[in-house]
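Changelog note: in this version the structure field was regenerated for every chain. One regenerated record is shown below for reference.
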Amino acid sequence: TTLVGGAAFTTGLQTSINLEAYRTMLETATKDFEKTNKLMKNAEQLSISTPFSPEEVIQATATLESYGIDSERWLARIADAAGATNTTMEQATEAVKDILSKNEFETMESLGISKEMIIAAAEQKYGKNKVFNKQGQVKDKQEEKLKIVLEEIMVSKFDGGAEKLSQTVKG
């Protein structure tokens, strides 16, 4: 029992250290103590209704906020995508972060959403070459339209994915 207790203590200590690091990352990103507390609480609440640990959800929150991405808007979508595709929160967060911060679409393909799908949805919603140019690059000042299209695709493909996974043996 001493060995098991020691392992549990070490794991608990490591989790505390990680959470403190994510809190610091969030405070640095938001530059707002109150907002950091609110985001930490939101992440913990989301983790209750998903198969993901508070640490995983807080890490996703910190990553998004550090890239200037509104975690309150995207966290539930990311959790659903991860749940529906049986990937980690980290992988799904990276996919969204890459699109919204760098206009890189490759990691989203691992979740089953291709750049071509996003371009087609943008054209259907806003018209040809309104969001993307002919070379397939996001046009200047069209980031919000890209977010709307990506969010709509994620909802249609993954809505409820986290809840479904949380009801399985894995969750």
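Spot check on this record: The CA atoms of residues 83 and 162 lie 4 Å apart. Residues 2-30 form the longest helix (29 residues).
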